[in-house]
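Project standup — Tuesday

K.O.: blocked on the structure for the chain from last sprint. Re-posting the sequence here as requested.
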Amino acid sequence: MCRRKTEHPPPWEVLVLVAHYLDPETLAIASCVSKSWSLAMSLDHVWQPLCSSRYPSLSNLKISYPSVPFGRLYAIGLAASKRRFKPPSKPHLSLDNLVLAVELSTRRATVVAVAEPGSKINNVQGNNEVFKFDIDVSHDCFSGIKASEEEMKITWNIVLKGWGAVFTVMDCVGKLSCIAAVEGWFSEELPSPGCCSSGVGSGIVGDLKVACSGDLKVEKVSVGLLRSVDWRYLSIDDGLRYLQHFLLP
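H.V.: unblocked you, prediction finished:
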């Protein structure tokens, strides 16, 4: 009696055939089953089309570094994508931790000197979503400005509550055209956080505007943090995340 001989392909060949139909996440899970599964799911010709379609620039590194597996190139590309779009963590500071101190002075005298808790300013303005605050200083003005355009020293410090640290946002000299219904505007580029060298710009600008009354009295000072790329104010959380690099140890 003639027995029919049936040939079965080796298991690893079957795994390789199946691997071509799996998505990257399933391939990664399947490679943890056993050593033979790991070898089959990690073959270059399995990962090459996946890597080339999603991360073509990384795939081209294979030309210069042929020993690097396509699976590894795909993995680092995926990790980079996740880091890029990872939402930022909540800031370790809050407005309750800050005091905003502003001083305007001429050669003759101090015009404005005010220090307001961040929480008080935010509560007055209501549900503010951007790092921009209006400070009513009409009751804190020591003297008027004698000329419609006078040189003035502008200082804006943000102090950590409890006097643990201070960050100077602005310390400059400029001319203020104090005309009713017209705001004087001062800005200063801020340093990069401690993770970068001083030669790298932060892309953040300190902003201070001064509003005067008809009798040349300063009525309101507005302060904020802007992005220089589009001149929009930072959100409160983004502003706090920037400041914590300088105020917290």
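K.O.: great, moving the ticket to review. The chain has a mean pLDDT of 83. The two ends are 87 Å apart (CA to CA).
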